[in-house]
Design brief:
Layout lengths: L4 H22 L17 H11 L4 H8 L3 H8 L8 H11 L3 H6 L12
Length: about 120
């Protein structure tokens, strides 16, 4: 697993975006007209645990498949950590064969962000 400094900085920067979108998903205000309805009945940790169990994986087996530590997976499932770094979410989504948006929010969002200039 390559943990280069630029990747970590970028992941931290985008973790804030993930946290912001999570807060919007949990609020009662609609996010935008172009976003599908967001399910608030299942949180990220619950969804991660359910997907892992559906695939009959232990936390350690998922850790081996994703490159994420077992303790990070347990912390996410028990919601000790609520806003993972983007890289962690992407690796877990790939290992579970789901879209990152589904893992994070439970639905596919139709949000297009303008490129940074």
């Amino acid at each position: 697993m390559d943990s280069g400094i630029p990747e970590r900085r970028s992941a931290r920067r985008f973790a804030g975006i993930l946290g912001f979108l999570n807060q919007l998903a949990e609020s009662s205000r609609p996010m935008s007209q172009s976003a599908e309805k967001i399910s608030t009945t299942e949180r990220l940790g619950q969804r991660l645990c359910r997907l892992r169990k559906e695939r009959q994986l232990t936390p350690s087996a998922l850790a081996k498949r994703s490159g994420v530590t077992t303790s990070e997976i347990r912390d996410l499932e028990t919601e000790r950590v609520r806003d993972p770094e983007l890289v962690v979410g992407m690796r877990l989504a790939e290992a579970l064969c789901v879209d990152p948006e589904y893992l994070a929010f439970g639905v596919r969002l139709n949000i297009s962000l303008a490129p940074l200039t």
